[in-house]
Design goal:
Layout lengths: L14 E4 L5 E6 L5 H9 L3 H8 L8 H8 L6 E8 L2 E11 L12 E8 L8 H15 L4 E6 L4 H8 L5 E6 L2 E7 L4 H23 L3 E5 L8 H11 L5 E5 L9 E2 L2 E4 L11 E4 L6 H10 L4 E4 L9 H16 L3 E3 L5 E4 L6 E4 L7 E8 L2 H13 L4 E6 L8 H10 L5 E6 L5 H12 L4 E5 L20 H10 L3 E3 L2 H13 L7 E6 L2 H13 L3 E2 L3 E2 L6 H13 L5 E6 L2 E2 L5 E2 L3 H14 L5 E5 L5 H5 L24 E2 L26 E2 L2 E2 L2 H21 L13 H12 L8 E2 L2 H9 L8 E3 L3 H11 L3 E4 L14 E5 L2 H15 L2 H4 L2 E4 L5 E10 L3 E8 L2 H6 L2 E5 L4 H9 L18 H17 L3 E11 L4 E3 L2 E5 L17
Parallel strand pairs: 5-6, 9-10, 9-13, 10-12, 13-14, 14-15, 18-19, 18-20, 20-21, 21-22, 23-24, 23-25, 23-26, 26-29, 29-32
Antiparallel strand pairs: 1-2, 2-3, 3-4, 4-5, 6-8, 7-8, 11-12, 16-17, 16-19, 27-28, 30-31, 33-43, 34-37, 35-36, 35-37, 38-39, 38-41, 39-40, 41-42, 41-43
Length: about 950
């Protein structure tokens, strides 16, 4: 008789994962209803694998075995399965044991674990993914250690345990290898997990972009329509693989359309189909997905609309689409997508609605908007600028910008990554991936929907609560170049993809227009660059004069970059000569090719032929480039012999790809119709290059001997008292001081003064001079409203101040006055740390007071902050000069301030139960600082999706 599990089914253990080969699979708990699946799975396992699992020949499972392996209490006995298409391909099980290896219950904290993977699926990373998930389950159930017995010949399983990164011990006993794994995550296990995640997710995108065959499902029977358009674009683009047109309504005798096989279903192909583009109505998509999944299609591009962008019913339809596709191991781009492009010569894939496919280039482009994607592709096409790859993700139900970053990080054909994002589903992961990618190639982002506070229609992602200014600061910390418009996106992308990174902010300006040179000079100052005095070549300057001047500027060691300004030359007759464009372009190209590797940008006004000359390709280009006239609002570019982007900077990230060396023909000179646009792009390159140089030597998270992490953890546990209320608790002043003191943060005591006599008594204990201030929410930290009286030197002054406060603002019960010893004079600042569910812990700093708050003059960094982060944090606010001796004042102790920031960072990083810390004001004096006010709020430890096992998001 079957018995039910002792505990409810743990649905939160279910997860979709990406395997090593880029396919997806589902991990879920095994239930009592899985008996038939388990038997079928076991029948497909080889005798050798069965022997390795049971240490003896074990041809079939008995009824008792089946019962045992499908009945779990989800606490002491747990089984997980990996499924594809609803069928098991692997299982793992743990049983809690005591110190003698006998079945046990809590508080025993060890469990025996065993895996079994079908032979056909070994080598796909299935066991590694299962180990991550079963370890997380075990930790949740109070198990701290796994024990496993493995036959010495079972090298694959031994390698799974060895490579996981957990602390482990091995011994050889009774003819088998005894393994013991401590399940507490380590730096190494987290690194292994993230490396596997990167390879798997990058491979999943690569499979979509490099198919050997494509089926267009929904190809119309007559010309026109979405499906037929994609089919024509595939063929016109020269796709190197096989193409199939699929439509269930095709006549039975129709064998071909547009020169490709015409099929009624994917099954009729008779051979594997790697990618399917779905252009059918939403109600017919499930049927098409089932057909694709049943016949081994690896990925889908869903162009169909009618999903989450259309309301609640469409949102549910979108969820079902993702679940269905992933059940077959397929990833999805879309729905409501515009398509994908890969310009690699070996692929030449244009599975999109783009009428003008881009040329081959070195830019990877990801957009969440079809309209923006159309505009960007069209603009790049007109400017003669190529792409390496393009994804328009539409509703972004599955493949996201994070996946694209994983792919571009190791793609040798991509030098610059451009992203148009309207939502960031996992900001914490995005920041991590962007930082790693930016260390080897530029990442430029435009973020739409910045001020709406909600995701755009169709984007079923969590909405981050942190302000947009904070998002910008975190992107900057990660090395991401954030721009405001798609025009700036392209402007920055063109310069970064075509020019070497500048080694500094010094900019030489030369040209034949004094006025245009001055505009460029002013723009440089506005963007924080250091322009040299403009060199005026006069309006009669010939192309040779430009060439010589550019060569001289590039050779000048005092110059890091050059902006060339040009207007039509005035001829000998005194009339404008607009026909020098070709010669001028050739001259500039020759000077750049022969000079040192420094970035060059051209600002030009109505010079006929210059656009074509700047678009000309030098010999040896790695890909085609078509000379096209540049429209007035778009930059052009020209091939030169300069090094490809990043040549002056040689940073690497451990284990990651290094910046590639120069490639012939990839260096180009971008040109812009306005000085402001050219200079802004150059300024972004300067800032990014500086970040790259600093990233080569990252800061450190310092250790402090006086930190009592264990004591703080015990205090937090006591203060929370087992509470599960997600709103948490705000600590009392005494508890706040005690907790902060464990991290070396001293808060000056403030004694309650419910009456003037109590105030006098408090002052006597603290010693004069003192401050009297209210703690009422409406007046707290608002010295400008008069709720604070400072430098009270005796009891008479104190009583007078008390009477004035209560007469002006209300009674003591409302004002809640306190008395505090005066701190040394200095600059009032505020230090905060807060937890965002998506971004994680964020450390913030600014000056205290209404003016800074009104202007939003706060700087932010992700936790844990390094010593470099802390130094940058206090220097990045606009009012930072007040800390460093503004107008003759004494500089304050910024070293003490940096240490305070680092201690707060350590505190919130080590104890995720701390959801907010506010220190205000923090008075920073010439020597030392004083924390005069502090608030701490605790809540039950939140889930950390970046530390748990790998899983695809499920919205």
């Amino acid at each position: 008789m079957e018995t039910q599990p002792d505990h409810a089914y743990p649905g939160h253990w279910e997860a979709d994962v990406v395997l090593r080969d880029g396919a997806t699979a589902r991990i879920r708990p095994i239930t009592t209803g899985d008996a038939e699946r388990l038997v079928s799975f076991y029948e497909q396992v080889s005798d050798e694998s069965k022997y390795y699992r049971f240490f003896a020949p074990y041809p079939r499972l008995s009824d008792r075995d089946v019962h045992r392996f499908t009945h779990h209490d989800y606490v002491d006995r747990v089984g997980l399965a990996v499924t594809v298409g609803g069928e098991f391909i692997a299982t793992v099980r743990y049983d809690r044991i005591d110190s003698l290896g006998r079945p046990a219950s809590a508080p025993a904290d060890e469990a025996e674990v065993a895996f079994l993977v079908q032979d056909a699926h070994q080598g796909r990373g299935v066991a590694s993914a299962l180990l991550e998930h079963i370890a997380a389950v075990a930790r949740e159930r109070g198990i701290r250690r796994f024990a496993a017995e493995v036959l010495p010949a079972n090298n694959k399983m031994i390698k799974v345990f060895r490579d996981a990164g957990y602390t482990q011990r091995r011994s050889f006993e009774d003819g088998s290898v005894h393994l013991s794994l401590d399940l507490e995550p380590t730096v190494e296990s987290l690194a292994v997990q993230r490396a596997r995640e990167q390879r798997a997710e990058a491979r999943s995108v690569q499979r979509l972009l490099t198919p050997r065959s494509v089926a267009v499902v929904g190809t119309g029977r007559a010309p026109g329509g979405v499906g037929r358009t994609v089919l024509r674009n595939l063929l016109d683009g020269g796709f190197t693989g096989r193409v199939y047109a699929v439509n269930r309504a095709f006549a039975a005798d129709l064998r071909e359309t547009d020169g490709v096989p015409a099929l009624r279903s994917v099954a009729e192909a008779g051979e594997p189909v790697d990618l399917a583009v779905l252009a059918v109505p939403a109600e017919r998509v499930p049927e098409a997905v089932a057909d694709c999944g049943a016949h081994g299609v690896q990925g889908l591009v869903v162009l169909s609309a009618g999903y989450a962008e259309s309301g609640a019913e469409g949102r549910e339809r979108q969820r079902q689409l993702v679940r269905q596709a992933r059940s077959y191991g397929m990833r999805i781009i879309g729905p409501n997508a515009f398509g994908i492009i890969n310009t690699a010569e070996a692929v030449r894939l244009n599975a999109s609605l783009a009428p003008e496919p881009p040329d081959r280039g070195r830019i990877g482009l990801f957009t969440q908007s079809g309209a923006i994607g159309i505009a960007l592709l069209s603009g790049l096409y007109r400017r003669g600028t190529g792409l390496s790859s393009f994804i328009s993700a539409g509703n972004r139900a599955d493949v996201s910008g994070n996946d694209f970053l994983q792919y571009c990080y190791e793609d040798p054909d991509t030098d610059v990554v451009l992203l148009y994002l309207e939502s960031i589903g996992n900001p914490r992961k995005f920041t991590r991936l962007a930082r790693r990618t930016a260390a080897v190639k530029p990442v430029v982002v435009v973020k739409g929907a910045r001020h709406s506070g909600s995701a755009p229609p169709g984007h079923a992602v969590p909405v981050t609560r942190i302000p947009d200014a904070t998002v910008s600061a975190l992107m900057s910390q990660a090395g991401v170049i954030r721009v405001d418009t798609v025009t700036e996106l392209v402007d920055a992308g063109l310069l970064l993809a075509s020019q070497p990174l500048p080694s500094g902010p010094r900019v030489a300006i030369l040209g034949n227009s004094e006025s245009l040179g001055l505009l460029t000079y002013d723009a440089c100052l506005t963007e924080g660059l250091r322009p040299l005095p403009p060199l005026d070549l006069t309006t009669g300057a010939a192309p040779a004069d430009f060439r010589d001047a550019l060569a001289t500027a590039l050779a000048d060691p005092a110059c890091d970059a050059v902006v060339v300004t040009a207007i039509p030359r005035v001829g000998e007759t005194g009339t404008m000569d607009p026909s020098d464009g070709g010669a001028l372009g050739t001259a500039l190209r020759a000077a750049a090719a022969g000079g040192p590797a420094k970035p060059v940008a051209v600002v030009h006004v109505e010079i006929v032929g210059l656009a074509e000359a700047l678009s000309a390709v030098a010999g040896g280009a790695s890909g085609p480039a078509v000379a096209r006239a540049t429209e007035p609002d778009g930059p052009a570019e020209v091939a030169t012999g300069t090094a490809r982007p990043g040549a002056p900077v040689t940073t690497t990230t451990g284990g990651g790809p290094e910046p590639a060396g120069p490639r012939p023909g990839t260096g180009r000179i971008p040109a812009y119709p306005a000085a402001e646009r050219a200079v802004r792009a150059l300024a972004e390159a300067v800032t990014y290059a500086q970040w790259r140089r600093q990233a080569a030597e990252p800061g450190k998270v310092p250790e402090y001997d006086d930190i009592d992490e264990g004591g703080a953890a015990a205090s937090i546990e006591r203060l929370l008292g087992g509470s599960t209320d997600p709103r948490g608790v705000t600590l009392t002043a005494a508890d706040t001081r005690e907790l902060l003191a464990r991290y070396g943060i001293s808060v000056r005591p403030a004694l309650a003064a419910p009456g003037p006599d109590e105030a006098a008594g408090a002052a006597a204990r603290l010693g004069y001079p003192v401050a009297l201030k209210t703690t009422a929410p409406r007046l707290r930290h608002r010295a400008d409203l008069g709720g604070v009286r400072l430098d009270l030197t005796d009891e008479a002054q104190l009583r007078l101040a008390y009477r004035e406060l209560t007469e002006t603002f209300g009674g003591p019960a409302e004002l809640r006055p306190v008395v505090q010893a005066m701190a040394p004079r200095g600059v009032d600042t505020v230090v905060r740390a807060a937890i965002d569910a998506g971004a994680g812990a964020v450390l913030s700093f600014g000056l205290a007071g209404a003016a800074s708050e009104l202007l939003g003059d706060l700087a932010h960094r992700l936790v844990p902050a390094t010593d470099r982060d802390a130094a940058e944090l206090i220097r990045s606010i606009r009012t930072a000069p007040l800390l460093f001796g503004w107008r003759g004042s004494e500089p304050v102790d910024t070293a003490a301030l940096e240490e305070l920031l680092l201690r707060v960072s350590r505190l919130v990083h080590a104890h995720p139960e701390i959801v907010s810390v506010t220190l205000e004001p923090v008075v920073v004096a010439t020597h030392g600082l004083s924390v005069l006010g502090a608030d701490v709020r605790l809540a039950p430890r939140p889930a950390r999706d970046d530390l748990g096992p790998r899983r695809l998001p499920s919205y």
